[in-house]
Amino acid sequence: MVSIQTALAAFKRSPLLSALSITTIAFSLFAFGLFGLVALNIRDALQRVEERVEIRAFVADGTPIEQITAASDEIAKYPEVLKVEIVTQDQALARARKELGEFSDVFDGQFLPSSLDVKLKAGFRDPKTVRKVVDRVKGYDFVDDVRYGEEWIAQLYRLRNIAGAAGIALGLAFAAVAIIIIGATIRMAVLARSREISIMRLVGATDGFIRRPFLIEGSIKGVLGGLLALVLTYLAMRVLDQYLHFQTAFFDRRLATLGVVFGALMGLLGSAVSVGRHLRRV
Amino acid sequence: MVRFQKVTKIYPRAAGGAAALRDVTFGVAKGEFVFLTGPSGAGKSTILKLLYMDERPSSGEVRVSGFSSRDVKRREIPELRRKLGIIFQDFQLLEDRTAEGNVAFALEVIGTPKSAIPNKVSRALTQVGLASKARAYPGELSGGEQQRVAFARALVNDPFVLIADEPTGNLDERATRGIFQLLREVNAAGTAVLMATHNLELVRSSDYRCIELNHGEIVFDSAEVPAISVEMD
Fold first, then answer.
1. Confidence class for position B55, pLDDT limits 50, 70, 90
2. Is there a single domain that holds both residue A237 and residue A170?
3. pLDDT at residue A138 tops 70
4. Cβ neighbours of residue A75 closer than 8 Å, sequence gap 6 or more
5. Cβ-defined contact of A205 to B78 (cutoff 8 Å)
6. Do A41 and A59 belong to one domain?
7. B92 interface with A at CB cutoff 8 Å
8. For residue A46, which of A136, A167, A141, A147 has the smallest C-alpha distance?
């Protein structure tokens, strides 16, 4: 209780310094948030593209429909498979006509092979799993050829991995900057109260007692900085939407809470390091 | 109660690595009053810092009320300090707290129940004769009065030993006499006092034990004089 009062008193005692630290925390988290938003939207876009990943197994002419149906039922039972669709020669022609409308009169007769179109479940659309399923489908001797846009899938995943790695690296860098900034502002607060701290130690206050208000102060700054950053990120997104006509997604409640908690943790860590260093030195 | 056994203290960063204390051995009995004298840099403050375990000896052992410098843990030191009262030449008061606020501070930070604080504070301030200025800020008090506030803060936890580092160094003669009188009263009530001072007049005006230091060594201890004189007889 005394710790919370002391922590709040610190805000009252130096409102300018407190506002300054909250703003710096907010800006570093804002940068973090902007990047997070980009990553989130890339992920969403990739997910939409990924949903179109499809394996198409072309069936040899003259294969009895019963055999195809039996194979289709078997494939549908693979754990990776979402659904299997049998596309007959007629259906293939109709689809080609529809997709390539201007050439529709070129298509005539049953020259397109029938196929099994296999859709995979989410989480099983990575190149390795796709290839595994393709190999099993190839095992049917009536299957002539299997197409699944191998290169395209590999590219997609490479892009996603690069985006993920860049997100983590930049995120860590921004987090480190934020922790250092919080540490520095708490350090200023510690130095401003160094006389008080030395008296506290002389009269027998424990390190934990001395540390607690600073940790609370750091966490509060982190939370406030996190909330401010959330508002700034939201405003930035609205501006982008308005002028660039992006359809961007914003953090859901869980991610937003996580961001603020992350801010609090950074505040806690920054102040713990700062106070710890001071207490070890005196 | 307090025991220094062959204590040597070397500050690693000191010029030339000279020892601040060399092979110092002495003890302070319960309720004893001891002056520590000697020129600046003789090691008086080092002895006091070792006593409240702000420093650890380079060799030898310091024992204070059951705590030994050899095995005391960092987290046990606050416990020791709660049994000590410490006052300094520069008072070490918080400027933004009143006299009673400064005394109460010593109780707040060790978790004394809130309801018990006002009584203890007013008793300590009365003991040092400053009850009428409880609401004054340090800036509104004279040097002597500020030292009395520091005194009250040191006494409020009923210490068994009072450590005073040049407590009269910044005070005029009148205030010095007042503070010294307070120290005598506290001692008469049973609290041991260890006082570092330059003020030889003060030392001579009483018959308390006096330990004189020079270059980190004890060059004179009045407690040992009678023993020597007996031998000479």
1. very high
2. yes
3. yes
4. A81, A84, A116, A118, A136, A137
5. yes
6. no
7. yes
8. A167
Domains of chain A: total: 2
Alpha helices by DSSP H, listed for B34-98, are 44-51, 77-81
pLDDT score of A67 more than 60: yes
What residues of chain A lie within 8 A of the CB of B82, using their CB? 203-204
Q: Which residue of A202, A206, A210 is in closest CB contact with B75?
A: A206
Both A265 and A161 in a single domain? yes
Residue after which a domain boundary falls, among A117, A147, A177: A147
Question: Which residue type, as a one-letter code, is found at position A238?
Answer: R
DSSP string computed for A120-149: EPTT--SHHHHHHHHHHHHTSTTEEEEE--
Q: CA torsion, points B10, B11, B16, B18, in degrees to nearest 10?
A: -30
CATH code assigned at A90: 3.30.70.3040
Residue of B52, B78, B92 with shortest CB distance to A199: B92
Q: Is the ipTM of this complex over 0.95?
A: no
- Of the residues A126, A147, A168, the one at which a domain ends: A147
Partner-chain contact B105 A209, CB within 8 Å:
no
Q: What pLDDT does residue B118 have?
A: 96
Give the residue from chain B lying closest to A194, CA to CA: B94
Mean pLDDT of B150-164: 94
Residues A96 and A129 in one domain: yes
Same domain, A60 and A139: yes
Q: In the numeric block, which tokens belong to residue B131? A: 């009850």
Same domain, A71 and A22: no
Residues of A in contact with B92 (CB under 8 A): 195, 198-199, 202
Chain A hits for B111, CB-CB cut-off 8 Å, are 209
Strand partners of residue B59: B8
Does residue B158 sit at the A interface (CB-CB below 8 Å)?
Answer: no
Asked if A59 and A106 sit in the same domain, the reply is yes
What would the two tokens of residue A40 be? 């989130």
Q: Is B171 exposed, middle or buried (0-12, 13-18, 19+ CB in 10 A)?
A: buried
Would you call B160 an interface residue with chain A, using a CB distance cutoff of 8 Å?
A: no
Residues of B in contact with A201 (CB under 8 A): 78, 81
On whether both A188 and A231 belong to a single domain, the answer is: yes
> Which member of B94, B106, B109 has the closest CB to residue A209?
B109
A2 contacts on B by Cβ (under 8 Å): 108
Q: Which residues of B197-222 are buried (b: 16+ CB within 10 A; e: fewer)?
A: bbbeebbeeeebbbbbbeebebeebe
Token pair listed for B231: 């031998």
More confident residue, A147 or A105: A147
At A222-271, the pLDDT tens digits run 899 999 999 998 998 888 888 877 677 788 889 889 888 988 888 888 88
Q: Quick one: pLDDT at residue B230? A: 47
Q: What domain range is A18 assigned to?
A: 2-48+156-281
Return the residue of A nearest to B91 by Cα.
Answer: A199
